[in-house]
Specification:
The protein is mainly alpha-helical. The chain contains 3 helices and no strands. The radius of gyration is 32 Å and the shape is elongated. It starts with 10 loop residues before the first helix and ends in a 7-residue tail after the last helix.
C-alpha cells in the first residue's frame, strides 16, 4: 500500500465536529483556570505572624554570620556582630 493518497477531511465534519471540540477544550481550560483562581485562598497574616517571621529571619541572619563570618574582614565581622549583640540597641 502506498502513502501517496492523502487523508481528506470533509468540510462538514470539520465544521460540526472538530471545531466544536477545540472550542470545548479551550473553554474547559479557561474555566478550570478561573475556578482555581476563585477557590485559592490568600493567606491572612496577622501582626503576630509578621513578628514571628521577622524574628526567625533575624536568627537566620545571625546564624549565617556565625557560619560564614570567617570569609569577611575582621572589622566587617565585628560591625555585623555588634549590630546583633549590642547591649541596649542590638537586634538580638
Amino acid at each position: 500500500m502506498a502513502f501517496d493518497s492523502l487523508l481528506v477531511l470533509d468540510p462538514a465534519i470539520r465544521d460540526w465536529v472538530v471545531l466544536p471540540m477545540v472550542l470545548v477544550v479551550v473553554l474547559v481550560g479557561m474555566g478550570r483556570h478561573y475556578v482555581q483562581t476563585l477557590i485559592k485562598t490568600t493567606p491572612v497574616l496577622t501582626e503576630h505572624d509578621l513578628t514571628e517571621i521577622r524574628c526567625k529571619q533575624t536568627l537566620q541572619q545571625a546564624a549565617r554570620l556565625r557560619t560564614h563570618g570567617q570569609y569577611l574582614q575582621h572589622s566587617a565581622f565585628q560591625k555585623r556582630k555588634t549590630y546583633f549583640t549590642k547591649k541596649k540597641t542590638g537586634v538580638l
